[in-house]
Amino acid sequence: MRVLIIINSYYGKQGAVGIRAAKIVQHNKRDKFGVICRGDAINSRSVCECIYEIGSVIFKLFKLVKVSLPYFATDIRVLESHFFELLVLDLLQKKPELLDVDVVHLWEYCPKIIEIFKARKIPVIQDIAILSAKAIRQLKTNSYFRQCAALENKQEKCFQRADMLTVPSDFVFQSLSNELQNKSVLVNFGVDVSSGLSEISKLPSVSRGSEFCFLGNVSLRKGFAEILRVFSRDDFKNLTINIYGRYRYITFLRLWVFGPRNVKLKGFQKLSNIGSQNFCLFLPSWIEGSSKAVFEGMAMGLAVVVTPNTGSIVKHGVNGLIVEPGDEKAMAEVLLKLHSDREYAGRLSESAVKTVQRYGWDSYCKGVRSAYRQASQATTG
C-alpha cells in the first residue's frame, strides 16, 4: 500500500504530531510512505518530502506572533493553515507523482487538498489531534477560550469531506455528531514503554519525592489557572508543584511578582528526573485530544489526577483519579488525599503502570495501519 502523510509539522520532532508520523513509518515495513511536512527533523530523506525550506522562516514567524499575541493565536493558526495548504497544493502541482497513492493521512485542516484526492477516488483520513473548535465553543467555560468561526468552518468542511476520521480518545469521539462518529476510528496515542521508563516505574511511591508535577505547555486550556488557585490555598502552602514544559516569560514574571511561590517553573527535563523527584502528576486540562503527558506519567509510575477532558485512559479509583475541569474544591481534596496517603497513591500508580503497557507505539501504529486498510477497502469495495 502506498500512503501519503501530510503534516503541518516537522517529521520526527518530539512533542509534536511529527513524532507520531515518524513512528507510523518506522513501525510499518510493509507499506511505502511519502511524507509532506515542514521539514525533516531526523534526516529521513528517503521517506520524507520536505515541502519548504524557504517556508520554514515564515512558520517560525507565525509561531513568534502566536507566542507574543496569545489572544490572537487562533486567528494566526488559521492563517498558518491556509499558508500550509497553499504550499502543499503547489507541491502537488509540481510533483504529480505524489498523487499516485492508495491512502492519504491528513494531519491539518485543508479542505481543498481533500477535494483533489477525492476527485481521484483516493480515500482521505482526517486526523483529529485535539478537540474541535465547535466542541470548544460548546464547553461550559467557553468564555475562557476565544472562538474562531473561520477555523470551525474549515474543520467542519474537512470532517464532512474526509472518508474517515481518526480520533485519539473517547472524549473527542463523544464530542462528534452521530454522523461523524459513524466514520470515526479511535486510535489511542502511544508512549515509549522503554526499559528506562520501566526502571523509573519500579520506584515505590513512598520512595519518590513528595512533590506534585505538571507536564506540558503552560496555558489556560491545560488548566494552569486552576493550578495557581489550588496551590494558593492555605492548606497547600507547604506543598509544591513543579511545572515541566514550555512557558512564556510573562508567566515567569507573573509568578515572580505575585506568586504563589510553591509553583515552580522547571522548563524541560528528562523524564527520569521527573519520575524520581515527584510522586503525582496533576493535569486539570479543559481542552486536549489525548494528553501524551498522562501516558508518560503513568509509564513513570506516578499517581495521576486528571480531568475527563484530557482524553486519557485513566479509570477513576483504578489507575488514577478523575475530577471535573474547573472543580477546584474537588481537585484540592484528591491532591491532599494522595499526599497524606502515599500507600493509596502507590496502588494507583502500580495499576497505571500495568495499564499503560498496552499502549506502546506498536499498538498505536497497528491501529493506524488498520485504519489505512479499512479506508482503502471501503473505497475499492
Report on the structure:
With 381 residues, the chain is α/β, with parallel strands linked by helices. It folds into two domains: 2-190 and 360-380, 3-Layer(aba) Sandwich (Rossmann fold); 195-359, 3-Layer(aba) Sandwich (Rossmann fold). The chain has 16 helices and 15 strands. It has helices spanning 17-27, 55-68, 73-94, 111-119, 133-137, 149-161, 170-174, 178-181, 195-201, 224-230, 249-258, 271-277, 292-299, 328-340, 342-356, 361-380, and strands at 2-7, 10-11, 32-37, 39-40, 48-50, 103-107, 124-127, 164-167, 184-186, 211-215, 241-244, 263-267, 278-283, 303-306, 321-322. The protein has a seven-stranded parallel sheet with strand order 5-3-1-6-7-8-9. The chain has a six-stranded parallel sheet with strand order 12-11-10-13-14-15, with helices on both faces. Helix 2 (55-68) runs antiparallel to helix 3 (73-94) and helix 4 packs parallel to helix 6 (149-161).
